[in-house]
Amino acid sequence: MKISIITVSYNSSSTIRDTFESVLIQNYQDIEYIVIDGNSKDNTVDIIKEYEPQFKGKIKWISEPDKGLYDAMNKGIRMASGDVVGIINSDDFYHKNDVISQVAEAFGDKNIQAVIGDVRFVKDNNLDKTVRYYSSKNFKPSLFRFGFMPAHPTFFTYKSYFDKYGYYKTDYKIAADYELLIRFLHKHKLNYKYLHLDFMKMRVGGVSTSSFKSNIISNKEIVRACRENGIYTNFPILVFKYFIKIWEVIMVKQ
Predict the structure, then answer these.
(1) Rounded to a whole number, what is the distance in angstroms from the first to the last CA of the chain?
(2) pLDDT for the residue 204
(3) Which domains does the chain have, with CATH numbers?
(4) Is the pLDDT of residue 137 over 70?
(5) β-bridge pairing 114-123 and 156-158
(6) d(Cα 97, Cα 246) in Å, to the nearest integer?
(7) pLDDT > 70: what percent of the chain?
């Protein structure tokens, strides 16, 4: 089974080496790695070219303007030739070498149509210090209405489902990943398996958590995503998720 891993980058020179190294150390052999760069202005492309020989023909990459993060993700998925597709951001990295092999093992069960797992949030100045542990263990589709989703970077599924059920909606600014997961896991009811595995470390400060304004946009889009897929929710209902996020931080500190 070939697994395609997609990284979207833009001016990611300070972090993308960690991403590349984490893909290279994976002990699963049948990996296709795809990098979609948004015409970076720093030396990200130079780093891609530097690492290209190490992937020994298993990397595809382009660098060109795009219409945003989700447009770039869609480009990567369309380029993928693997059976299964997953995404790792250019400031995240797998911190164990058997993540992809465990994903492949899960898909050995033909009843499994998607995989989800856990992630660790770390600070850029101390990658060994976990500040929040985001687990998908207790996720179920009924929680979408409360603003909860499985950790998107741990989501792997067959490429054929993107062709069948659609790609990321590019008119979303922040929550297209939320909408896609609702569509796949709630509306179309893909049979998913939770792996008790922290797939990767994520640096804090992503697009959806970077400011108060982005949180407002995110919540508006979550309400829209739920509505478009037959789930009722509203802003007061979504407030509950922030208590859970605080609890996740508290539990890490104990």
Answers:
(1) 41
(2) 85
(3) 3-253 (3.90.550.10)
(4) yes
(5) antiparallel
(6) 30
(7) 91
